Amino acid sequence: MEEGHVIMIIVVHVDDIFAVGQKERCNKFDRDLNKMVPVKILGELRWYSACFYDRDVERGLLKISEQRFAEELAAEYGVEWGQSVPLPVSVKLSDFDVNEASADVPFRELVGSLMWLATQTRPDIADAARAVARYCPSPKMVHWKAALGILGYVRRTSWMGITFEGGVVTGMSMQVFVDADYASKAADRRSVSGGLVMCVWGGVTWFSRTQKSVTLSTTEAEYVAIADVLKEVLFLRQVWRFILPDASMPCIPVFEDNQGAIQNAHNPIINSNLKHIDVMHHFIRELVERKDITITHVPTQVQHADFLTKASSKQSFALHRDFMMNLQ
């Protein structure tokens, strides 16, 4: 740092290092590091942690993808092609014989690889990977086939990645989408939260996760999901403040399709019907009152976090995927 400003960001993963900053400073860092420790300087960032970084300087685009990893993974499991969605609505993972023996297949290994893709560059398989991962302790053949189906979709769309569009940084410009699928787990009736944070036209963070507690209504499930995604937002705001301390921090729009959850977030009076919600979730109201965020209603059809909570039709899935990954 110089005079309280970040001049370079250095990312280290095991023995791989890359620097972000002005070219002259990065070159100097390379030379100085090489004097202390012998390093192999590879030039402009292209590959890092199995991800490929493709820059189009003229158009101001950066695409991050894992095509090679996806294709090699599909070849390892003998998968050549797949469907146009990772997990069709017709697939019922809970439809199996409880007395059926666990499948003697490398299920955990495959699910682990799918989870890696889902958390790095393929948010479009996040919900499907979460759904099959629940059966890792005792997978049946229906779960194995579903996991292979997800891999087939990944192979079919291996060229896809997340594309970001450059521009002038004038402030913290984020869009947040959040949704929940109420009581979707038949075993314990826990709901699923889905969250998406967009910045410079691409998804920068997302999640599809089962909620930790059972909720008693759709409104409550959505309220818990809002709390989940705002934790991600607060972290990103802190990172932004560290990197660009002089940049403005505008009020962040959070798009939600449940009117009841929106009213709860804006209502300063505790409703007796909501006392059973854990106190931690009420920090939402404080953020609203401070005008750090604004929670806005959005129609379900354009709730782009919807496909992070449940299987969708082909048309709906493609709409949300293309928006989130900014497919060119």
Describe the structure.
This protein is an alpha+beta fold. It folds into three domains: 1-45; 65-156, no CATH class; 169-325, Nucleotidyltransferase, domain 5, CATH 3.30.420. 35% of the residues lie in helices and 20% in strands. The protein has nine helices and eleven strands. The strands form three sheets. The chain has a five-stranded mixed beta sheet with strand order 9-8-7-10-11, with helices on both faces. Strands 3-4-5-6 form a four-stranded antiparallel beta sheet, with no helix packed on it. A hairpin with a 4-residue loop joins strand 4 and strand 5 (61-65). Helix 6 (218-243) crosses helix 7. The longest helix is centred in the last third of the chain and has 26 residues, at 218-243. It is globular and about 65 Å long. The mean pLDDT is 88.
Short description:
With 328 residues, the chain is of the alpha+beta class. It contains nine helices and eleven strands. The protein has a five-stranded mixed sheet, sandwiched between helices.
